[in-house]
Design brief:
By secondary structure, this protein is mainly α. It has 2 domains: about 100 residues, Orthogonal Bundle (Arc Repressor Mutant, subunit A); about 130 residues, Up-down Bundle (Four Helix Bundle (Hemerythrin (Met), subunit A)). The protein is about 60% helix and about 5% strand.
Length: about 250
């Protein structure tokens, strides 16, 4: 827990600080769930659409570190920041609680889960057990042109890393890994691996090995491009070396 959080009296709820340039804030959507229906038109509430928008914003805030491990955030105050009602914020936080990213604190809000470097290492180990053999199998069977379809995702990862945008990098990284595994055709495997990937992106308490500077992010992102070249070339030996190193040498991707 950070010094600011530690200085608060017991039972106090952390209040998001006034927004600074670059801080997360969900934009007020134009149209959709916030648009008034046309005269005479009846429309069902699009509550889930709003909840999903808030959920995406909260995920980005978790990854970027705007929501700090150990701190407690109330739904009404987050709702004010996002420009929505408290209901979709609570619903989104409840979904994150089911995943283990936050913990519901009765009458206070939601506490961001605290995790250690060991937690990350264990997640990386489990992911490697799933992804390494699958990618190696695909490397032997998938035609080069199908791997070519992943180039835009690899490029998006590099672009986000070059900007130093941790949230965008995390999302593009997840999408790249998901697209690789989807080539297996095993939807259950994809769902399990995707959840593990999300968990590996949550913040860590105290010092961590998570890349934060653009140069560090860029080095990790470049691994995707190099891996893709090996997959297109059908170089299974290089693919195996790269995917094993990817999980053993990085707590981020």
């Amino acid at each position: 827990m950070n010094d600011t959080a530690a200085a608060r009296p017991a039972g106090a709820t952390s209040v998001p600080q006034p927004r600074r340039p670059g801080q997360f804030r969900a934009p007020r959507p134009q149209g959709g769930a916030f648009a008034a229906p046309a005269d005479g038109e009846r429309r069902l509430p699009e509550r889930h659409s709003v909840r999903d928008q808030v959920l995406n914003a909260l995920r980005s805030a978790l990854v970027s570190g705007e929501l700090r491990p150990g701190d407690v955030y109330s739904a009404p105050l987050l709702a004010e920041r996002y420009g929505v009602s408290a209901t979709p914020v609570r619903e989104a936080m409840q979904l994150l609680a089911r995943e283990g990213a936050v913990e519901a604190m009765p009458n206070r809000g939601f506490r961001i889960a605290e995790r250690s470097a060991r937690d990350l290492a264990e997640l990386a180990e489990v992911r490697a057990l799933i992804e390494v053999p699958v990618v190696l199998g695909l490397a032997r069977t998938i035609a080069p042109e199908r791997w070519e379809s992943l180039r835009p995702l690899a490029a998006a990862t590099v672009a986000a890393a070059a900007r130093g945008d941790r949230a965008a990098y995390a999302e593009s990284d997840r999408l790249f890994h998901r697209a690789m595994l989807e080539l297996s055709g095993n939807l259950q495997l994809v769902a399990v691996a995707d959840e593990l990937h999300r968990r590996s992106q949550w913040p860590v308490s105290g010092p961590s090995r998570t890349p934060s500077r653009p140069a560090e992010l860029l080095a990790d992102a470049t691994e995707h491009a190099v891996l893709l070249e090996a997959l297109v070339a059908g170089d299974v030996v290089t693919v195996e070396a790269l995917v094993r190193e990817h999980f053993s040498g990085s707590a981020w991707g």
